[in-house]
């Protein structure tokens, strides 16, 4: 079942015949979002479909401000980013299977119940974005990674989405988790063992341990692109470098794309001969999935290519990057 078909299990469409003329609002809620790519990508897709919808930033971690927007009939969707992916869940009426299993949301959309009441549904399209970005670049990935180990760097909300994607769609036999704090990994493992029976997760904490394990066929990085500051962060960096230096390279996805998509992890993987997917490519696919849920239409191929061209500008560092941000909405 695809994400749009699944969405109708929660109710019927809220869209009327006035789709092309009625202004609608969509927001992104997060703590540090001034440089987000989302406004440009979503507003591009709205324009391509000829709808008077507007996507704006709301830089806040205040759940009450989020709840207030859910009551606005003009608002038909939201993007939810750090640190709100768990904190805003209680404001929603229901969750998709992926969001419930992962324990975090990055998207909300509206469906109508039998009485015509608006219901806000929380979804996780981060996992979909990982899947689609990898398969778009490397169509063989779903077979070359199957029944082989994978690895995730980090243990936060993005890491949870990565774990789910690697287990469900790439068939990982086991997922190594590298993170500075074991307590965060323990919480991740406990959560997934409840929500995804049969999943195999392993906390890896030393060079000796990683040296005895099979090379992961796909790695997803979810941590900020900052120089390691303490012993634990240096240990994590050393573990990752040790894997990337092996002769049997696989695929690396780095979900981080700020301040530049060419993160230290990305460039190291390229230098070592790994096949790579940038964070901007994941963001583009996440935005496409969100747009499908809000406008209830597939995105045509020409628009997909235009969206990907925007993120390629960001990847290449060419002139025009200063247009990727957007004014913060005053809500």
Automatic annotation (TrEMBL):
Q: Which Gene3D superfamilies match?
A: Leucine Dehydrogenase, chain A, domain 1, NAD(P)-binding Rossmann-like Domain
Q: Which residues cross the membrane?
A: none
Boundaries of every Shikimate dehydrogenase substrate binding N-terminal domain copy: 28-107
The lineage's top-level taxon is Eukaryota
**Protein's name in the database:** Shikimate dehydrogenase substrate binding N-terminal domain-containing protein
Organism (species): Sporothrix bragantina
Organism phylogeny: Eukaryota, Fungi, Dikarya, Ascomycota, Pezizomycotina
């Amino acid at each position: 079942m695809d994400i749009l078909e699944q969405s109708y299990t929660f109710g019927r469409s809220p869209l009327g015949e006035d789709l092309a003329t009625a202004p609608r609002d969509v927001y992104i809620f997060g703590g540090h979002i001034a440089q987000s790519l989302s406004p440009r990508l979503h507003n591009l897709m709205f324009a391509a479909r000829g709808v008077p919808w507007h996507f704006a930033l709301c830089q806040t971690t205040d759940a009450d401000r989020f709840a207030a927007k859910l009551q606005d009939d003009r608002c038909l969707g939201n993007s939810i980013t750090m640190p709100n992916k768990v904190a805003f869940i209680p404001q929603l009426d229901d969750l998709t299977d992926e969001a419930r299993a992962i324990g975090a949301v990055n998207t909300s959309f509206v469906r109508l119940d039998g009485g015509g009441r608006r219901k806000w549904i929380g979804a996780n399209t981060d996992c979909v974005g990982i899947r689609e970005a990898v398969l778009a670049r490397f169509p063989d990935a779903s077979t070359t990674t199957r029944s082989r180990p994978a690895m995730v760097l980090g243990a936060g909300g993005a890491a949870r989405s990565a774990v789910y994607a690697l287990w469900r769609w790439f068939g990982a036999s086991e997922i190594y988790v590298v993170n500075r704090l074991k307590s965060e990994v323990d919480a991740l493992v406990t959560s997934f063992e409840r929500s995804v029976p049969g999943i195999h997760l392993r906390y890896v904490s030393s060079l000796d341990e990683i040296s005895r394990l099979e090379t992961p066929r796909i790695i997803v990085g979810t941590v900020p692109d900052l120089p390691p500051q303490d012993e634990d962060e240096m240990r994590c960096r050393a573990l990752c470098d040790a894997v990337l230096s092996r002769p049997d390279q696989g695929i690396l996805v780095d979900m981080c794309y700020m301040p530049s998509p060419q993160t230290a992890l990305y460039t190291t993987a390229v230098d070592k001969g790994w096949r790579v997917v940038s964070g901007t490519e994941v963001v583009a696919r996440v935005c496409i999935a969100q747009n499908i849920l809000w406008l209830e239409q597939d995105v045509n191929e020409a628009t997909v290519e235009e969206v990907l061209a925007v993120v390629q500008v960001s990847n290449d560092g060419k002139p025009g990057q200063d247009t990727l941000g957007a004014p913060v909405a005053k809500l």
